[in-house]
């Protein structure tokens, strides 16, 4: 699978050279940007996985860009040594030093992409767990209502919800919502 990348450097020639290296390594370079505002627009329109960026642009710097749209994708900063510690202190952007070593560039991109995939999977797991917790709360409320209104034990209320939802072909949470809305 090709990884979508945007290259953003204030020097167009270096940007094009990086683009050629990336494309030769199987990356899909969506565009090369030379201005910060241009990069922000490109990120919003193209939704890249990773942005390779320098620090200074004619209209803004990397910190300004990151503060504007940093949550939309991962960044790899190619910076001179004085900026490296500053960027790493202010953000969670991974940095490599300039001048660029091609193998370090490719290895860094691979590492960022793998980390991004792990984070995405963890977010998906969190979403599933949050949904299960919300559903469990609804079922618990419905059980409580049944216990109060019908004098059922907790286990009897659960079995009632379980049986009725199976008989009606509904999920337990959907039947529980029906119980709560009919009260």
TrEMBL record:
Residues 119-180 form the ANTAR domain. One of its GO terms (molecular function) is RNA binding. SUPFAM superfamilies: CheY-like (SSF52172). It holds the Pfam family ANTAR. This is Response regulator. It comes from Clostridium sartagoforme AAU1.
